[in-house]
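adenine phosphoribosyltransferase
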Amino acid sequence: MDYEEYFEQMGTDTAGRYDISPLFGDADTFAALRTDLCAGVDSEPTVVVGIDALGFVLGSAVATEMSVGFVPVRQGGKLPYPDDELLRRDITDYSEDAKSLELHPDELDVDDRALVVDDWIETGTQMRAATDLVESAGASVVAVAAIRAHRNEGTKPLFERYDVHALRTGAE
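Predicted C-alpha cells:
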C-alpha cells in the first residue's frame, strides 16, 4: 500500500511526536498496515512484543496477523508486581524525559523468538531498552518493526544487530 498521504498527515517533518491515528481509522488501511508490518519478517517469531502505548495497538494487530501471542512492555510503575519481580530499564527518550520500561520475565520463555513492535523508532533508545528487556528475560529478538525507523547514530546498533522492518526508513 502507498502510505504517502498518511505520512503527510502525520507531520513527518516534526520531531518527537507523530499522529499515526489516521492509519487506524480506516479498516482497509489498518488491515494493510498490519500485513505490511509483517512483510519480510522471515524469522518466524513465536511472540510479538509491543512497547507501551502505540506498540500495543500495532503489536497486537501484528500478533493476530501472525497467529502468535502478544507480550506488552509497559511504562514503569504500571505492572501489578513488586519491583524485585520485574525487569526494568531506565531511559531518557527523545523528549529528554526520564522514564522506565518494564517487563515481567515470566511473560517470555527461553525458546521464544520475539518480534518487537513500536510505532516509531527515532532515537533508538526505547527500542534498545525493549530488546534488552526481552533478551534479559531469556528470549531472543529475531526482528523489530515500526511504521518509521530513522537511521542515525542512536539507531545504528539496532540496524546492525537486528532485522529492522519499517514502512519507511531514512535519515532524520
